[in-house]
Specification:
With 490 residues, this protein is of the alpha+beta class. It contains 14 helices and 16 strands. Keywords: Ion channel, Ion transport, Membrane, Sodium, Sodium channel, Sodium transport, Transmembrane, Transmembrane helix, Transport.
């Protein structure tokens, strides 16, 4: 039996391998009962090792993160949340634009239709009634190019905000309240990382600076959103975070903030393991990932799937992709399916199911109280204060309890305990049945080749010796014949 046969190779490996107990099985000098006992023990050891390795892998894949609370708050710096303001109505601008683009005696219902276009939030009742359902629609009805009409009506930053201050220190509103594109049109937001050129204003509260009050005046009816620095205002934003602003009133919102701290090793896990995404793990419409940014992309895809077009405020769309009057009717009809979120298990509820993970750096904002008061002033504006009620005394901490190194240590310890193996044992197994097998095969092949050549050489030598002996005999006969002939002549 050669070393290249499977049986001899396996036996040779089992005799010399470093896995515990295997060499006893291959030892022919031992009694069959002892060898059978070792077979059972080795199988049980490998089975127990496999169970523990599978359990360690499952724990690493499904539950590598622990979520705890830190209370070492004395050295924390807490930022005020981002504040966004989105224009909700501007009757004067609608009147002026209507008189400009249409004749002064235009149909008044067209102004309501223009309002639906300029402040589209998923529904457009007047636009559909006046310009679609009407058997004889007005020739001035807007049937397409809605982004053009919306830009005519919407106001800029200076027409929306004024008198901004933080802790009684004034600053330029429009320098820090930067424009941001949303699915509700252009809004203005401070201290957000989602704008094209972020320019944050330092609003940090700690044990030394405990006061944090942001004040500004709003010049138009608007919606205020208090968000984390990575979030964006959307149609699907929770009403809990919004504040409807009416002119002639004062608004004071008191809130608290709790941040999330991440262990450095959290980055090494994948999003499914930690159940969140970092800002860099982004394939959406905004520069950084966040839950709200993900829902905007989800809503865009839902509009395309249901109505085969997008509304004129949707990000990263061109005019040909915008809905015309027929598309707006479709969006209006499916308002309940396109403006609300629902969990995956709520099959019979209207809304979108978006598979969006939360941000790993999200901020938990708790609204303590909203105080609304009336102001008698000749100026038509609203006064807004955003106040950090008190410093946080705790924050969340995301820790890695099972890292890749822990998995390696667990697997290595298990294999070492049950089967007496190390990394080199598995290298030896691969080496023996690849390199060693190929080497043995090559050696045997060379031996066979050398043996054949040696036999051929021996046969050739013998043939040559026979030929030379024959030639000598012929010469001897010739010489003898010549000598005999010479003697006869004499």
């Amino acid at each position: 039996m050669t070393k290249t046969s499977c049986k001899s190779l396996v036996k040779d490996y089992c005799t010399s391998c470093t896995f515990a107990g295997v060499h006893f099985i291959a030892d022919n000098t031992r009694h069959w009962s002892e060898r059978f006992l070792w077979v059972i023990l080795v199988i049980l050891s490998w089975y127990g090792s496999a169970l523990l390795i599978i359990a360690a892998w499952d724990a690493f894949v499904t539950n590598p993160i622990s979520f705890g609370v830190e209370t070492t708050y004395t050295d924390w710096d807490t930022k005020l949340p981002a504040v966004a303001i989105c224009e909700a109505n501007n009757k004067l601008m609608i009147y002026n634009v209507s008189d400009t683009i249409w004749t002064p005696n235009h149909l008044l219902d067209l102004e309501d239709a223009l309002k639906d276009v300029a402040y589209f939030r998923g529904s457009c009742y007047r636009l559909i009634d006046v310009c679609y359902k009407n058997n004889n629609p007005d020739p001035f009805c807007q049937t397409s190019n809605y982004s053009y009409y919306a830009k005519l009506v919407r106001s800029g930053c200076r027409q929306t905000l004024s008198n901004c201050s933080y802790n009684d220190q004034n600053f330029n509103c429009c320098q820090y309240f930067q424009p941001i594109d949303t699915d509700m049109g252009t809004c203005y937001i401070i201290n957000s990382i989602q704008t094209k050129k972020p320019n944050p204003y330092k609003m940090v509260v700690n044990m030394k600076q405990k006061r944090g009050v942001l004040k500004f005046d709003v010049l138009l009816p608007s919606m205020i959103y208090t968000l984390g620095e990575d979030e964006v205002p959307t149609i699907t934003s929770s009403k809990y975070s919004t504040l409807k602003i009416k002119l002639g009133h004062g608004y004071r919102r008191q809130l608290t903030v709790r941040n999330i701290e991440n262990d450095p090793l959290v980055v090494e896990t994948n999003p499914e393991q930690r159940a969140c995404r970092f800002h860099s793990e982004n394939d959406g419409l905004y520069p950084h990932y966040s839950f709200s940014a993900c829902t905007v992309l989800c809503r865009k895809r839902a509009q395309q799937r249901i109505c085969h077009c997008n509304d004129h405020f949707m990000l990263d769309t061109s005019v040909p992709e915008h809905c015309n009057i027929t598309g707006m009717l479709c969006l209006h009809t499916h308002e309940g399916d396109l403006t609300a979120l629902k969990p995956q298990w709520a099959l019979h509820r209207r809304g979108m199911t978006c598979h969006c993970l939360p941000s790993c750096d999200e901020t938990e904002i708790t609204i303590i109280k909203d105080v609304i008061s009336s102001h008698k002033s000749k100026e038509k504006k609203a006064f807004v204060e955003i106040v950090l009620a008190y410093l946080p005394t705790e924050r969340f901490k995301r820790n890695v309890v099972r890292s890749r190194l822990d998995l390696v240590v667990s697997v290595g310890g298990t294999t070492g305990l049950f089967v007496g193996a190390s990394l080199l044992s598995f290298v030896e197994l691969i080496f023996y049945f690849t390199v060693r097998f190929a080497g043995n095969f090559w050696i045997v092949k060379n031996k066979n080749k050398n043996g054949i050549e040696q036999m051929n050489a021996t046969s050739t030598g013998k043939s040559l010796e026979t030929t030379q002996t024959g030639r000598r005999a012929i010469r001897f006969e010739k010489t003898f014949f010549q000598q005999t002939r010479a003697q006869n002549f004499m």
